[in-house]
C-alpha cells in the first residue's frame, strides 16, 4: 500500500449484481469526505469484466467502468459487493481475478453475498467468516467446510474481511477507513453518509426491534447524547438509567432492541472512539487521554486498546498520526 495514501481500492462489478451493494462502496470510497486530505484518500477504481468494461446489473441498471479485472488484480484493496446469483457459480473471470489479486498481496473484502466469490476462489478456507443471514444455507450447501458465523455484522481476519448483508457492508467500509486513515476520517465519512461512525463487527445481524416504535418516547437519544458529552466521567449503567428515567433492566432491554448491545459495551465503544481521536489529533500523554475518555488510567486504556484495536495507544498514535494535518493541543477543539 502506498505510504503516502490509502492505496488503490478496486470495486468489482459483474453482470447481474444488485445495484445497492455496488453503490455502497462506490459512495463510500469514490471521493474523500469534507475535511479529509485528498492526497491521503484512496485511488478508487470501478472494475468491470475484460473487453466490455461494463456490466448490466439487475435491471434496469448498467455500470460503465474505466477499468477492468486486470486493474483489479493490481489493486491494494479489492471489494467484492456481491455475487450475481447465489444459486449459480460466480463468474469464473471474477473468481480468477480476485484470487490473483490476493496472490499479489491485496486485501480482499466481501460485502453481503460477495463471500460466495471469495469462497469459490478458496480464500475463506480455514477462516471464520460471515455473509447475509438469508443466504447462509446456500453458502453452506456449496461450501460445507466453511466456518460461518451467522450472528455478526462483519469479520476482519487481516487480509480477508467479510460482512453480512446490505447496511453491514457500509459498516465494513467505514471500518476499513478507520483502519487505514484513523477515526477522524472514518467519522467524517460517517457524518457525510449519515450513518453510525462505528458499529462493532460482533453486533448482531438483525434485531427484534431495530428501530424504536416511538423514538420520541424512548429517552435513549437524549441519554446517549448526554453520555457522549460526559465520557470523561465514571459513568455507570445506573447513571444512564437514571438519566433515561428507566430501571436498569428496562434500559438494558432498550439498548438491546435499539442498538443491538449492552449499555456497558456501548460506553466502552464510545470511550475507545474518543481515545482514538485524541491519540490521532493531540499530543496529550496517554494517561491524560485515558482520563479524558473515561477509562481512568493509562494501564486500563492499554488493556482495552490492545484487546479491541490490536495495538498499544502509543503504537496507534505513531501509525495514525497525520503528517499533513495540524496536531490539536486543545481537546475542546475536537467537538
UniProtKB/TrEMBL annotation:
<feature type="domain" description="HTH araC/xylS-type">
    <location>
        <begin position="221"/>
        <end position="319"/>
    </location>
</feature>
<dbReference type="InterPro" id="IPR029062">
    <property type="entry name" value="Class_I_gatase-like"/>
</dbReference>
<dbReference type="InterPro" id="IPR052158">
    <property type="entry name" value="INH-QAR"/>
</dbReference>
<dbReference type="InterPro" id="IPR009057">
    <property type="entry name" value="Homeodomain-like_sf"/>
</dbReference>
<dbReference type="InterPro" id="IPR018060">
    <property type="entry name" value="HTH_AraC"/>
</dbReference>
<dbReference type="GO" id="GO:0043565">
    <property type="term" value="F:sequence-specific DNA binding"/>
</dbReference>
<dbReference type="Pfam" id="PF12833">
    <property type="entry name" value="HTH_18"/>
</dbReference>
<keyword id="KW-0805">Transcription regulation</keyword>
<keyword id="KW-0804">Transcription</keyword>
<dbReference type="Pfam" id="PF01965">
    <property type="entry name" value="DJ-1_PfpI"/>
</dbReference>
<keyword id="KW-0238">DNA-binding</keyword>
<dbReference type="InterPro" id="IPR002818">
    <property type="entry name" value="DJ-1/PfpI"/>
</dbReference>
<feature type="region of interest" description="Disordered">
    <location>
        <begin position="316"/>
        <end position="335"/>
    </location>
</feature>
<protein>
    <submittedName>
        <fullName>Helix-turn-helix domain-containing protein</fullName>
    </submittedName>
</protein>
<dbReference type="GO" id="GO:0003700">
    <property type="term" value="F:DNA-binding transcription factor activity"/>
</dbReference>
<dbReference type="InterPro" id="IPR018062">
    <property type="entry name" value="HTH_AraC-typ_CS"/>
</dbReference>
Amino acid at each position: 500500500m502506498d505510504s503516502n495514501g490509502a492505496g488503490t481500492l478496486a470495486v468489482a462489478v459483474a453482470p447481474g449484481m444488485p445495484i445497492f451493494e455496488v453503490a455502497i462502496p462506490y459512495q463510500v470510497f469514490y471521493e474523500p469526505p469534507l475535511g479529509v486530505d485528498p492526497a491521503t484518500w484512496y485511488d478508487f477504481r470501478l472494475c468491470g469484466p475484460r473487453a466490455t468494461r461494463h456490466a448490466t446489473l439487475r435491471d434496469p441498471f448498467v455500470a460503465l467502468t474505466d477499468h477492468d479485472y486486470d486493474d483489479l488484480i493490481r489493486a491494494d484493496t479489492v471489494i467484492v459487493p456481491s455475487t450475481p446469483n447465489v444459486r449459480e457459480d460466480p463468474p469464473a473471470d471474477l473468481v480468477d481475478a480476485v484470487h490473483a489479486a490476493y496472490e499479489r498481496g491485496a486485501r480482499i473484502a466481501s460485502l453481503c453475498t460477495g463471500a460466495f466469490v471469495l469462497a469459490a476462489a478458496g480464500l475463506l478456507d480455514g477462516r471464520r467468516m460471515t455473509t447475509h443471514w438469508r443466504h447462509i444455507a446456500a453458502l453452506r450447501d456449496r461450501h460445507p467446510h466453511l466456518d460461518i458465523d451467522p450472528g455478526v455484522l462483519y469479520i476482519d481476519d487481516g487480509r480477508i474481511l467479510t460482512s453480512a448483508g446490505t447496511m453491514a457492508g457500509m459498516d465494513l467500509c467505514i471500518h476499513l477507513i478507520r483502519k487505514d486513515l484513523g477515526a477522524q476520517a472514518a467519522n467524517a465519512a460517517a457524518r457525510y453518509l449519515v450513518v453510525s461512525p462505528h458499529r462493532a463487527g460482533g453486533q448482531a445481524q438483525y434485531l427484534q426491534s431495530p428501530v424504536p416504535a416511538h423514538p420520541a418516547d424512548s429517552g435513549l437519544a437524549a441519554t446517549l447524547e448526554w453520555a457522549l458529552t460526559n465520557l470523561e466521567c465514571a459513568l455507570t449503567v445506573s447513571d444512564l438509567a437514571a438519566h433515561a428515567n428507566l430501571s436498569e433492566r428496562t434500559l438494558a432491554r432498550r439498548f438491546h432492541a435499539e442498538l443491538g448491545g449492552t449499555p456497558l459495551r456501548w460506553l466502552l465503544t464510545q470511550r475507545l472512539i474518543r481515545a482514538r481521536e485524541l491519540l490521532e489529533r493531540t499530543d496529550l500523554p496517554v494517561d491524560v487521554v485515558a482520563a479524558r475518555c473515561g477509562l481512568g488510567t493509562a494501564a486500563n486504556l492499554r488493556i482495552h486498546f490492545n484487546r479491541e484495536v490490536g495495538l498499544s495507544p502509543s503504537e496507534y498514535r505513531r501509525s495514525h498520526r497525520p503528517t499533513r494535518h495540524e496536531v490539536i493541543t486543545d481537546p475542546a477543539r475536537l467537538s
